[in-house]
Amino acid sequence: xxxxxxxxxxxxxxxxxxxxxxxxxxxxxxxxxxxxxxxxxxxxxxxxxxxxxxxxxxxxxxxxxxxxxxxxxxxxxxxxxxxxxxxxxxxxxxxxxxxxxxxxxxxxxxxxxxxxxxxxxxxxxxxxxxxxxxxxxxxxxxxxxxxxxxxxxxxxxxxxxxxxxxxxxxxxxxxxxxxxxxxxxxxxxxxxxxxxxxxxxxxxxxxxxxxxxxxxxxxxxxxxxxxxxxxxxxxxxxxxxxxxxxxxxxxxxxxxxxxxxxxxxxxxxxxxxxxxxxxxxxxxxxxxxxxxxxxxxxxxxxxxxxxxxxxxxxxxxxxxxxxxxxxxxxxxxxxxxxxxxxxxxxxxxxxxxxxxxxxxxxxxxxxxxxxxxxxxxxxxxxxxxxxxxxxxxxxxxxxxxxxxxxxxxxxxxxxxxxxxxxxxxxxxxxxxxxxxxxxxxxxxxxxxxxxxxxxxxxxxxxxxxxxxxxxxxxxxxxxxxxxxxxxxxxxxxxxxxxxxxxxxxxxxxxxxxxxxxxxxx
Length: 521
Prior knowledge:
Layout: E1 12-21, H1 34-48, E2 61-64, H2 85-93, E3 99-102, H3 109-122, E4 128-136, H4 137-145, E5 161-162, H5 173-176, H6 183-198, H7 202-220, H8 234-238, E6 246-248, E7 251-252, E8 262-271, H9 272-277, E9 286-295, H10 309-322, E10 331-334, H11 339-349, H12 375-389, E11 394-401, E12 406-413, H13 425-432, E13 443-453, E14 460-466, E15 472-476, H14 483-490, E16 497-502, E17 508-514
Parallel strand pairs: 2-3, 2-4, 3-5, 10-11
Antiparallel strand pairs: 1-8, 1-9, 4-8, 6-7, 9-12, 11-12, 13-14, 13-16, 14-15, 16-17
Helix pairs in contact: 1-2, 10-11
């Protein structure tokens, strides 16, 4: 007899997860294409179900994550790509889905798709859904460096729901024209804003980043799919060395997502009734107890660049839907493209960086690998395996996209629970109503945050400045004259008084820099 505590047949469940990977130094390295890696992961997910028969014919939806090389305007796929990636994967595994979906850009995509298609399954709009994605960035760079090429282009027939890039609103011209265009630069601005908030000098803050990520390397070292399975101490992560060069202040190489990865991952969802009818053992089932999906304001519109409050609200909303407290969570996977992405959640939820509960099930993006937009598909796979081993536990997975721009959360458990649908519409409406700081073009004021890019021939600084009347402007050091940026490398930029004026090219260029003297470099 059905009770309020017994899930009904339409309750969505994850029944299988799979991963595939290869390293260029491995004896069995085969230089697999993204579609081949994704198909290998999909086959692993099908096998992981423990089903007594083949499940390919039961798949009616394949939803795929975009590779980085097709995630920007003017695609640049050096070896070519599929015109219909979801169906390229489906063909390889012998599936014939009625619906194929190509998701928008962003690391939130895998968890967002779980949330979306869990609702579709519960509503009877989908029967069995394969979520899949992959990257072969390391292979492309490796073969290109050897002067070799491959032909990975494919033309596959069949409809595809291409959702486009979804880049609107992620970044505005104020930051882009002053050198902050890439994730490294934007996250460096967020990280230094947090350094200002917590009141640490450069050296002390570097130690906190190293201490945060050292336990991640312990997990990566035991993960067979990790791209950098090496245990590192906090000091080895923080210390600047020839192998760990400064990329953009405050980030050395070892705290940045490792995009040189060849990895694929897949997740298979269906309904509880369908899973039972197919004979899938119930010890494979993992339930989505709660979730949420939100979008943060564009960076320049955020009052506090050291925080993403929308991310924290998303976590709290997912916990509330699941009917659990933070203390009930036994394992986390917090998206870790840079330290600030983890610190932001910890700060907002009141968790200590040395909380004894695991903060990653994979080893994190700098060490496991930052498989483009698809990292969190691997995290979901790792979470599923962790909860199968400990079926009384509950896990929280946070997936981040853009520049702390989009966040999707899932609360997972092996414990059966009636399906609780959820909507983030009211929460998103609240986020969209938050006031933004007033902007100006130039003037003088106090450095709110900054970064110094070390990737070119000479250092270039990007600064966000607050004027005395509370306005904000973005400025940069003169790319043709590195004197000020070099000086900032040896003095404390945070809190410094600066002047800047707009040049003929429309850029606001730093003309004067006066540190307060309260910080040490």
